[in-house]
Design goal:
194 residues, 2 domains
């Protein structure tokens, strides 16, 4: 569990740099923009690796159960994760309606993904990992909204619905790969229960 918490802390710390204009400016002045971005990415990646390792260890050692989710929550989680994949895809495709409406569809997708996993899993390790990432995504969204208000950031322009259809297609394809193959390969658990 220590590795899981350490990885979560590293991940959150790495993402605090872009959210703090004063810290980012100080680091950029000292190291340069490229090295700061590279350092943030490396620390975030190290956090993801440590979280994955720590979560796997906690599952292997038998993390205590807080609740026993009913089977239907697994099906609901699959549907919520599909929507989360579409939202994440929308963050990287040209503006349609989704991106300007949510402003930060990546964070919305992470929050939905975390909620889905909390519904379908009930151990202490699940609450630490998915609850921690839900808290991070919610906090990051609040911080970004405050920064945008203080800067008077304009409302992003809407684009054609066709761009949302691209996000839907990309998100659904990635979801299918993940559900039917990658999740079990990476984490040793089939979301389908097979």
């Amino acid at each position: 569990m220590v590795m899981l918490v350490a990885g979560l802390a590293l991940f959150i710390a790495a993402h605090a740099v872009p959210l703090s204009p004063s810290l980012r400016a100080a680091l950029t002045e000292r190291l340069g923009d490229g090295p700061v971005k590279g350092l943030v990415a490396l620390v975030a990646l190290a956090g993801v690796a440590a979280m994955s390792w720590g979560y796997g260890e906690a599952r292997f050692e038998g993390s205590p159960a807080i609740w026993d989710p009913p089977l239907w929550t697994r099906h609901l989680a699959g549907l919520l994760v599909l929507v989360a994949f579409v939202l994440v895809a929308a963050a990287y495709t040209p503006n349609g309606i989704i991106k300007p409406t949510l402003k930060h569809p990546m964070l919305a997708g992470v929050k939905l993904w975390a909620v889905a996993h909390l519904l379908a899993n009930g151990t202490v390790a699940d609450v630490v990992l998915f609850g921690g990432l839900l808290g991070w995504a919610a906090g990051a969204r609040i911080a970004l909204a405050r920064r945008e208000r203080s800067l008077g950031a304009p409302q992003p322009a809407r684009g054609p619905v066709a761009n949302d259809l691209i996000a839907l297609a990309v998100g659904a394809a990635l979801w299918a790969v993940f559900v039917f193959w990658a999740h079990e390969q990476l984490f040793g658990v089939s979301p389908l229960g097979a």
